[in-house]
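This part of the workshop introduces the protein records we will be handling. A record pairs a protein's sequence with a compact description of its fold. Backbone structure tokens are a discrete shorthand for how the chain folds in space. The question running through the whole workshop is how a given chain folds. The record below serves as our worked example for the rest of this section.
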Amino acid sequence: MLHGTEILTSAQMRATEAAAIASGTVTDARLMERAGRTVADQIRLRWPEPGRATVLCGPGNNGGDGYVIAHHLHRAGWQVSVSGMRGKAAGAAGDAAERWLQSGPIRPLQTVTTLPDQGVIVDAIFGTGLTRAPVGDLARILRLLSKVDLRDRIVAVDCPSGLCLDTGTFLGDGAQAGLTVAFDSPKPGHLIADGPTACGKLVVADIGLKDWRQGDPAGVRTTAPLDATTGRWLAKLHGKGHKFAHGSALVIAGGPGSGGAARLSARAALRTGAGLVTICPTLYAMPEHAGPPDALMRRPVDGSADLERLLQDDRIGGVCLGPGCGVSRAQSLLKPLLASGRPAMLDADAITALAQDSAPALHAHCVLTPHMGEFARIQPDLADSLSGKDGQPAISKLDAARQAAQRMNAVIVLKGPDTVIAAPTGAVRVHSAYDIPWLATAGAGDVLSGIITGLLARGLPAFEAACMGVTLHASAARRFGPGLIADDLPDQLPGVIRDLID
């Protein structure tokens, strides 16, 4: 997982390259040479002994990179065959094609009907500029590259051909790569939707564009790493000894028979370091919460008046509403909670309650953690736009989360193996968890809600709490490994924190 790395859209990447070339300090040909040589070096790192390589070159600069790759592999002793669209290659790409012709022929790409049984296959057909589905012979070739049994031998330049690097979705058929080498910065499509699976191992190579990078002023990045400084703060190694100095959290539970989700949240808030955590079921459900952990406080909340009285305690720094709460109960408690202005973690039934017309307005100290089904309830038009319904072009998960955060004036954590965290300011973070499929288990979202609640109670701003919470949650799942159930996650948190400071 890339940590704290800036993400550029395709348009921003093109603007970065244009700015670098306009500066007069680098040329298009020089950038192509750096990119192609870098990919060739990555191939040689992965396959140290020279072998056979088939390079497929498209009509644009991505194809030009392919000719440069072929040149460097040939010089390193590889047996290289090249198929390309020489007549359509212009500028630096055309020059690269002409240089390759001094070493070997260029077969027409359109005539490729089979792929070799052995050796590396370099996919340099389409890169960041693809905006529509390929057709004809190129579509047929992409179908060949989509075969799963080939993917370990396919190296993609920029991205697997056919993948839209802004949305992470395929425009028709597309290649599946074992290794993808991107340049300067990851793009959204590398990290969301189909991208992580299609790209295989992602390497982001520096080709000298940093000084001209055209990033997003609001900041679109991958989530920051957990480091020793974070670990010391989480471990309370700053001399504040009183429990209320580390925050007090409320977790609102539901009625009889529905307390498990809230207990998962409460345990997670405790393990995240909140000094005091109180679980608040209905009066008749109180006996269900008499068991461990004994560190958990219990107090009944039967209605809005009870919650209003509790929230008069200024020491309460975070409230979790939704897991196992019940929709009607969550709706009745939303008004006093939001009116208090306290940092609020809203999930599950609270999100469903928000979708109802009578739901009160949110504020910037709120965090919502919807999965895609819940997101469709609170932002149906954006959910439709993710799949390009009604003839409209699809938008990316990043754009959908950002627009929802700005509309709702709250932090949105749009969950999935590609979790996107968006703030009302426009800041966006991405966390990829494709490497931990065992995290997809019942109750894992309740634990995430509890982690974020604990961080809110400890005084972290909503966006920072959401970003750190997502990273802690994933780290706990990685630490445990396959076989994980949600009950295991809170107990992994002390180990995650301890590992940071050891």
Q: What stands out?
A: Residues 243-501 form a domain with the UDP-N-acetylmuramoyl-L-alanine:D-glutamate ligase fold (CATH 3.40.1190.20). The chain has two domains: 10-215, 243-501. The longest strand covers residues 52-57. The chain has 18 helices and 17 strands.
